[in-house]
Amino acid sequence: MNSQNWNAKEYSINAAFVAKLGNSALEILDPKPGDRILDLGCGDGKLTLEIQNYGCHVMGIDSSEEMIDATRKLGIEAQVISGDNLNFDQEFDAVFSNAALHWILDKDKVVQGVYQALKPNGHFVGELGGKGNINSVITVMSAVFQDFPHWGKFRNPWYFPSVAEYAKVLDRVGFEINYLELIPRSTTLNTGIRGWLKVFAKGITSNLKSEEQEIFINEVEKRLQPIIFAEKDGWIADYIRLRFKATK
Ligand code: BEZ
Fold it and tell me: Given the CA of residue 158, which atom of ligand 1 is nearest to it?
């Protein structure tokens, strides 16, 4: 799915906001007791547990073994499966995904797998980064790579589609779109840009030596500070969500 390595402990510290802010998408999911639900890209399972607590039979999947271990420790059925390698056949009433789909570049493959995994009339509900998401962070990361040419070319690992682009993907696969909206959502990074980079930019710097990774973090922090940091509010990133509900 991606070359990013996930560390469950780092994730629970630096990315706790991901599950907390996933509640809007959860409201759209509107889970009912007894529903069989697949949580695609469940991460450390915090939001998956909320779905289970509605009385649903939920299964979490994630490409990271470490994240699946963390999810199982919460008492949730979970399997190491990448979102672009689904192999379920009409098993789920709904497929839910929060902040995971933008890591999967083969968007048609994942949406086709979701379609196949759903029962007739099943729902696909989710939220991912949308067009323009974290533009300031990406611009600065790319500029740092340009200033250190021996590190190689900056590669953006994420897929942040517009409403029109994602509508086409859902439509191509056969979904009926019930709701699809781009929502700017400034997001406080509770452990600053350093904590965020340590969790989410690992894949971007995985070919660098550890001293170079430290230089990268220092440079990005220094250059982003005047743009997204304020003494009063802390670090606030320019998140933009693409939230949707579609029916098979
Ligand atoms: C997001 O949720 O929008 C996101 C998280 C980590 C990296 C990139 C985007």
Answer: 8
* Closest C-alpha residue for ligand 1 atom 6: 200
Cα gap 194→182, rounded to integer Å: 27
**Ligand 1 surroundings by CB, under 6 angstroms:** 99, 102, 129, 133-134, 158, 200, 239
Q: If pLDDT is split at 50, 70 and 90, which confidence band does 62 have?
A: very high
- Sketch the domain layout of the chain as residue ranges: 8-132+158-189+239-247
Please state, for a pLDDT cut of 70, what percent of the chain lies above it.
99
2 pLDDT more than 60: no
CB of 43 within 8 A of CB of 11? yes
The CATH code that applies to domain 8-132+158-189+239-247 is 3.40.50.150
pLDDT of residue 23: 86
Residue with the smallest CA separation from ligand 1 atom 9 is 129
pTM of the model: 0.95
Closest CA to 241 of 123, 100, 115: 100
Distance 129 CA to ligand 1 centre (A): 6
**Which residue shows structure tokens 């509605």?**
54
Give the integer Cα–Cα distance in Å for 145 and 234: 25
State yes or no: pLDDT of 20 exceeds 80.
no
Q: Which atom of ligand 1 is nearest to the CA of 133?
A: 3
Chain centroid offset of residue 233 CA: 24
- Residue located via tokens 């379609």: 115
